[in-house]
Amino acid sequence: MSQILPLEGVKVLDLTTVIMGPFTTQVLGDFGADIIKIEEPNGDMTRDIGPSKTSKMSSMFLGVNRNKRSLVLNLKKPEAKVALWKLIQDADIIVHNIRPQKIAALGFDPDTVLAKNPKIIYVGLHGYREDGPYGGQPAFDDVIQGQSGIAGAFEARDGEASLVPTVMADKSVGLLASTGILAAYIQSLKTGKGSYLEVAMFEGMVGYTLLEHHFGATFVPPLDKIGYPRALSSNRKPYKSADGYICILPYTNQQWASFFKIIGRDDLLKDKRYSSIKERSKDIHTLYTIVSNNVINKTNKEWTKLLQKYEIPHGVVNRLEDLKSDPHLKAVNFFRPYTHPTEGNLEVPDSAFRLNREALPIRKHQPNLGEHSKDILKEVGFKESEIFKILN
Fold it and tell me: By 3-state DSSP, what share of the chain in percent is helix, strand and coil, each rounded to 5?
């Protein structure tokens, strides 16, 4: 990529682990920021999750730690704390997902850090807002999916609570965090002052879940019960076709009219229950039953041809392994091959972003544990003898 990336020259100290935090900072790194991943001596725990060729370089770690450099600091040592303070003086942003009481015990709480560097953006990625009764409790994706209503939405629909089979809370709040960080950084450019940005998983996912499910409870007093009926219909699901599964979502009046024609139900065009989105919402479960009962009669290929003709949103259900051969993803070069200096040939999914029609570059490979420790410490003025004491 020839153009200058938007965050080129922005230095970010990344004290995060697992998925949410590293995903947050990887987004910033993809856009050009210099991400210094500060790890304890054993490294981020995801270094050991999933298959790997060499120690501490697992598939999970490789997925959320590109475009970063690794520095190992044992913050229980006074020398390591001195090193972190020097890095803080030189940084634009510091991000951590350490619980508030734990980071305070280390001496790097937001008030202390901002007092020493008033221009820095201090970002605390928390499980819960720190001043509530849950503040300071540990939190992981499964727990937050349960508490935020996602698992409960499954219970409302299916009669049994369940989890989305992906780390949805981690990744969703990670994206929210990257957005918030960029906003805080823009503010600092305008004012010359830093700020403390708190991003909470629980609150983030409750807002995320209730965006549509708040429904009637949006009004005081409520105009209807909480929960978006369309999303909670047990018939809102991939439909069984003659040879697999397909997702179909007619949404506008024209799309539904076209679908009724496709299935030979012109009588439904005159049915007032299906004449508008407001009316359809009142009995969406029955409408989805009609769809389900008709999809079984054709193959996915037959459905795709018809639905494309009438511009009705649809998509064949992919299994995880099918994604690697999806024709669209192949055409846009979504899976990106490159060679890692220690892990050999890799292939990684791209991000959602393209800038000026170009994919964001993989500028730096995922770092081995402590790979850049000496270089980073030299950059902020430490001598060889000092570096030895910090790292040993």
Answer: 45, 15, 40
Residues contacting 91, CB < 8 A, separation 6+: 11, 12, 13, 36, 117, 120
What burial letters (b/e) apply to 360-390, b meaning 16+ CB within 10 Å?
Answer: bebebbbbbbbbbbbebbeeeebeeebbeeb
**CB contact burial 220-254 (16+ within 10 A = b; e otherwise):** eeeeeeebbbbebbebbeebebeeeebebebeeee
SS3 category, 10: coil
Looking at residue 343, what is its pLDDT?
Answer: 97
**Closest to 369 in 3D by CA, of 17, 5, 9, 2:** 17
Alpha carbon 104 to chain centroid, angstroms: 27
* Segments in the chain forming alpha helices (H): 20-30, 59-63, 78-89, 100-106, 110-116, 141-147, 150-158, 168-191, 201-213, 229-232, 253-262, 277-282, 284-295, 300-309, 327-331, 373-379, 384-391
Could you report the per-residue pLDDT of 159-209, keeping only the tens digit for each? 999 999 999 999 999 999 999 999 999 999 999 999 999 999 999 999 999
299 contact partners, CB below 8 Å, separation of at least 6: 241, 242, 243, 244
Longest dimension (CA), the chain: 85
Contact, 35 vs 28, CB < 8 A? Answer: yes
- Starting at the edge strand found earlier in the chain, the sheet holding 245-248 runs 239-240, 245-248, 314-316
What does each C-alpha distance from 114 to 106, 109, 128 come to in angstroms? 15, 9, 22
Write the DSSP symbol of residue 160: S
DSSP designation for 234 = T
Mean pLDDT of all residues in 111-133: 98
Q: Please give the distance of CA 75 from its chain centroid, rounded to a whole number.
A: 28
pLDDT of residue 71: 98
- Token pair, residue 171, equals 């990744």
Do 174 and 27 contact (CB within 8 A), yes or no? yes
Q: Report whether 66 contacts 60 (CB < 8 A).
A: no
Q: 7: helix, coil or strand? A: coil
Name the amino acid, one letter, at 259: F
